[in-house]
From TrEMBL:
TPR repeats lie at residues 609-642, 677-710, 711-744. It comes from Candidatus Nealsonbacteria bacterium CG23_combo_of_CG06-09_8_20_14_all_39_17. It comes from the Bacteria. PANTHER family: TETRATRICOPEPTIDE REPEAT PROTEIN 6, UDP-N-ACETYLGLUCOSAMINE--PEPTIDE N-ACETYLGLUCOSAMINYLTRANSFERASE SPINDLY-RELATED. GO terms for biological process: receptor-mediated virion attachment to host cell. GO terms for cellular component: cell outer membrane. This is UDP-N-acetylglucosamine--peptide N-acetylglucosaminyltransferase SPINDLY. Pfam families: TPR_16.
């Protein structure tokens, strides 16, 4: 095989491999967040394979001395959309997050868009026939592309089906869930399959006998998967796609056979039934409910974000920044990386220019696919028209889904793949289709020593350097995510020192640009300070004091860097406030810094009762009771059943000698939220302080039943048993806590006291004694 032939194969097989791998690809080395495990890895795969294909294709063109370009007018809305999103990224509220995605929404990031646009241009240029001879190989090219796609779809269905029925053959903890699949949330999987089902049906119409039955089998497998998930959005998407098949199929009765119409009609009726029916098939697995913003909430948040300034009106807040917008204008108790609709998100993230360019992109491809069906000028044989119908039906269903659902990387992959096919297999002849003039492939000769050769060489070197730079930066981020994941695991298993090392590595790999790494590093150092303080032996030990001072400085600096890196993320200010609050009594002025940062967080997330409660705690520690009560009451005004705020008010009542009143209030709240683990624990603490030990025991045991590793609940349950004279039961609880917190010196002292027949502690703790392993998050 000569060099040109080898490069040609590399460029094509990189695309085949990407099409096959992307729907099923994930790696287990990331933090256990679905976006990290799936979309983060899919984005990395996309970048690697499109850059390999691009470099191979450019090298092949240089070796041949000519480059062939598809000059379809449809490239214009693609390039316009990329340009608008690039400018929006440059003016984003967090440029780093808008460009890379993670820890924001990876699918909406500029880098993901750039990868898919390169993917689009590679397909339209590599697979578009440039001559009559290449047109004869059109079926071979289609076969390679769709074989890769449908093999991947088949494997996706098999894995999802096994998961749904509890057959967890994957050895990873995150995969031990019936809802896990390689596409995303169950609703995302359902929409992904609903988009492809019309195309699968079309292939069953035009293929030979054996393949016909295989595609029919695949179609009914997809239908069965949709039945299990039973997503209304997916049924509606399928209904749109099948409707396109029927509408255009009926108009070409000489091509579209009656039995095809009957089969399409069957799927349409099936989809129609589940769109208007709430029927649940009892014998099928139950996957639970997904929580996401409503269409109305997404629109309100997008609109409010749009109105912030002239810049946001024009360009929005930047790609992937929906979570920031939701924090400021949504429900403060929840946050989402994405909204309910890709189109509605674009209002806030991309502004007027982003929305208009996105709509132009979507509608251009849909209209073009329809024009090919309506004019009929491109029909060389009936199979080609039917194939065009399959592309049009799935593409229409996909574009419709973007109005009702927020697409992830896998769904966006389908959009760019189907759009590219629509152009690639329609551009071999000069055709007029209304506004869309599909030109022949333009061939540019690269004569050695000519200006075109210099320009081509320059373009190749530039793209090679840019591509390699991007791959290097991406590999650094990937290593950072692996280290971060290892750090979380180390923290959860009690190895605090290893956790600090690993998360510190993640911070270094990202050049202190990723806020979640910095945020969690500051908390890890804070836990290390607590560990050193609990170990004792500080008084008179200058070395120990200096070590604690150094740890304090690093913790504060990491929290400060997080707020400077991503100043629109309220969580960064919340954690910084928490760090300062934890240092009250150790660092002068820590209370004022804590108040300032919590107030900054409230500017970004004004509807979050958690932040108001934390601010109230600072005031309470600073002996400003009235200010504390004001913030606790504000938190309750936002959410009437918010247990932590009620508990803090109860503590104020206890401080004022009104413990009975405090208990009565908490009992009333518990009647509204009987399964609130925090509420049960906090009521138990009140009962403990009021020496109602039987009721305290009942509430602590309830908390443990809801979370077996709830260390604070076990701690107070152990104290309750001790007060009741049940030393062996108390010892059992503290031994279990020690397994979860092996380095806690206080626990060792308590266990020693109990074993010696002494009281566990001299008095009840004023603060929670164990730091629960639930603070670290993305």
């Amino acid at each position: 095989m000569n060099t040109i032939g080898f490069l040609d194969k590399v460029s094509k097989w990189s695309i085949y491999l990407l099409i096959f791998l992307l729907p099923i690809f994930f790696l287990p080395w990331n933090a256990n967040f679905l976006d990290s495990i799936l979309d983060f890895n899919k984005q990395a795969l996309l970048l690697v394979l499109v850059l390999v294909s691009l470099v191979s294709w450019l090298l092949k063109s240089l070796s041949e001395g000519k480059i062939r370009l598809n000059l379809s007018i449809l490239n214009v809305p693609v390039l316009l959309y990329v340009l608008v999103m690039a400018i929006s990224t440059g003016f984003s509220s967090w440029q780093y997050g808008s460009f890379w995605g993670w820890p924001l929404n990876i699918a909406s990031s500029f880098l993901t868009l750039l990868g898919f646009v390169i993917f689009y241009f590679l397909i339209t240029n590599i697979f578009s026939p440039a001559s009559k001879a290449e047109e004869n190989k059109l079926e071979e090219k289609k076969s390679g592309l769709f074989t890769a796609l449908f093999l991947s779809v088949f494997l996706t269905i098999v894995l999802a089906g096994l998961q749904f029925f509890g057959q967890f053959f994957l050895p990873f903890a995150f995969a031990k869930s019936v809802s896990f699949n390689t596409i995303g949330a169950p609703s995302a999987l359902a929409i992904f399959m609903a988009i492809l089902l019309p195309l699968v049906l079309i292939f069953s119409f035009i293929c030979g006998k054996i393949l016909k039955w295989l595609f029919l089998l695949l179609a009914f497998a997809v239908l069965f998967l949709l039945l299990i998930i039973n997503s209304w959005l997916a049924w509606l998407t399928l209904l749109i796609g099948i409707s396109v098949i029927l509408i255009f199929g009926i108009t070409r009765r000489e091509i579209f056979k009656t039995n095809w119409t009957v089969l399409a009609l069957f799927f349409m009726i099936f989809a129609l039934f589940f769109v208007f029916s709430k029927t649940i098939i009892p014998s099928l697995p139950t996957l639970g409910y997904e929580v996401y913003p409503t269409q109305g909430a997404t629109l309100v948040i997008a609109w409010e974000s749009l109105k912030e300034s002239i810049q946001t009106i024009i360009l929005g807040t930047g790609p992937a920044t929906f979570s920031y917008n939701y924090s400021q204008y949504g429900n403060g108790m929840l946050n989402f990386l994405s909204g309910s609709s890709s189109v509605l998100e674009k209002i806030g993230n991309g502004g007027i220019l982003g929305l208009l360019s996105f709509l132009l992109l979507l509608l251009s491809f849909v209209w073009f696919s329809f024009k090919k069906l309506i004019t009929g000028k491109e029909i060389v044989k009936p199979e080609q028209w039917i194939f065009n119908l399959g592309i049009a039906s799935s593409l229409t269903a996909l574009v419709f889904s973007l109005f009702i659902y927020s697409a992830n990387v896998s769904i966006l992959f389908l959009f760019w793949f189907l759009s590219a096919l629509s152009v690639a297999f329609s551009s071999s002849l000069e055709k007029e289709t209304g506004w869309f003039k599909i030109k022949k492939m333009k061939e540019i000769e690269i004569v050695p020593g000519s200006l075109s050769a210099v320009f081509a060489s320059f373009a190749f070197v530039f793209l090679l350097v840019a591509g390699l730079g991007l791959l290097f930066a991406s590999s650094q981020r990937y290593l950072a995510e692996i280290n971060y994941s290892q750090g979380l695991v180390a923290y959860q298993t009690g190895d605090l020192d290893k956790a600090i090392v690993k998360v510190s590595n993640a911070v270094k790999f990202t050049s202190q640009k990723q806020d979640n790494y910095l945020r969690d590093l500051s908390q890890l150092y804070l836990y290390k300070i607590n560990e050193e303080v609990q170990a004792g032996d500080i008084a008179g030990n200058e070395q120990k004091k200096q070590e604690i001072n150094n740890l304090t400085a690093v913790a504060v600096n990491a929290a400060k860097l997080a707020t400077e890196t991503a100043p629109k993320n309220a969580e960064n200010f919340i954690v910084r406030g928490f760090v300062y609050r934890s240092l009250i009594g150790l660092v002068g002025g820590a209370d004022e810094w804590a108040i300032e940062n919590y107030e900054d967080a409230l500017k970004l997330e004004p509807n979050n009762p958690f932040t108001l409660t934390e601010l109230g705690k600072v005031y309470l520690v600073s002996e400003k009771t009235e200010e504390a009560k004001t913030n606790f009451n504000k938190a309750i005004a936002l959410r009437g059943d918010y247990a932590p705020a009620h508990f803090q008010l109860a503590l104020v009542s206890v401080k004022e000698g009104k413990i009975k009143e405090a208990i009565d209030k908490m009992v009333q709240i518990q009647a509204v939220a009987p399964d609130d683990i925090g509420l049960a624990f906090q009521l138990g603490v009140l009962y403990y302080n009021d020496e109602q030990f039987a009721k305290a025991q009942a509430n602590f045991e309830k908390s443990i039943a809801l979370n077996n590793n709830y260390s604070n609940a076990r701690y107070f349950l152990g104290l309750t048993f001790d007060k009741q004279g049940k030393k062996s039961l108390a010892l059992e609880q503290f031994n279990k806590i020690a397994e979860l917190n092996p380095d806690n010196q206080e626990l060792k002292t308590i266990i020693a006291n109990l074993e010696a027949g002494k009281p566990a502690i001299a008095e009840a703790p004023k603060e929670l004694p164990i730091e629960e392993g639930t603070t670290l998050k993305k």
